[in-house]
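The instructor's notes for this session suggest beginning with a concrete chain rather than abstract definitions. Hand out the sequence below and ask the class to guess, before any prediction is shown, which regions might be ordered.
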Amino acid sequence: LAQAILAQAISVSCILAHTHFACPHTVRATDLQIATANIQKVSPAMERPVQQEMAPGPESFDLAKRMEQLGLKVDPEPFGCCRCGKCIVVPDNHQAALFFCGQYTGTVKTSGCACIGFFDEARIISMKKYTLDCNKVKVLDLKGNPVLISGVATYRATSAKKPITDVSNPWPGNLCEPDTQSFMELQAQAVLKKVAAQYPYEAPDGQACLLRDTSGIAAQFREELQRQVMDTGCVITAFDLTDLSYAPEIAQAMLQRQQAEATVAARKLVVQAAVHIANDAIVEIGKLGREFDKDVEAGIIRSLLTAIVSTQTATPTMPV
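After discussion, reveal the predicted structure:
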């Protein structure tokens, strides 16, 4: 009995040893085969396209690069021997231009509390984005028709010195005198009139016009306004057209012309369709083996054209 128990224990230990050393390799091979099969069964539709993962997002406006293209330079830091006279508070996204006895001495670009000279004067300028609304400016298009055009310009300041020392009333706000149009508003209206005069209100397909080619014309508006307001230290980030219409004095006449053109185009389409229908009818009748003389064929075509082209309901008549 002891020998039998010992033999059984030895056999069990051998089985456990075989399982301990052999099973891991067998299991790993099996798992690898199953994983490979599962990978091969994955549907291509479930895989995410590489282009979608690597697709770049919308590009943001790079102010530093734009300033470099335009040749605009940042203001220098304040300079002087004594900066302990008094303190000023510069809000976030603002800069303070310093003047000593009327002479520009530098710009404080860091928000918070700053120490300046006792006799220094600080002029705080906002660096935020602003919009300028040019509402219903009357211009003449390329054909001389009066047109009402509206646009919105988006701009931001890049210098605290230029709007104070180089331009009077640079843009609407605290730097502009009351009841006075700013330099930016006047230049925007002039640019609208100058650029709009180079294009017709509407034109055939394939030709640039104010009614359809808004993106290209808006880019031209932006570049032209940027050249005009360079002295203010502003960067025009966008100039979009928001409204376009004929002036009231010719709006009724232009509406009638547009209706007439639409009516002519519609009638032309109806006539072309009627001719094709009449021709197809004669061809199909000939395929059925029916033959007509020229007079009967002409009568069929005339009746079909009259019924299709007419704006009123056809009334059949029978000869008696």
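Then share the key points. The beta strands are 86-90, 94-100, 103-108, 112-116, 120-126, 129-140, 146-157, 234-246. Confidence is low (pLDDT under 50) at residues 12-58.
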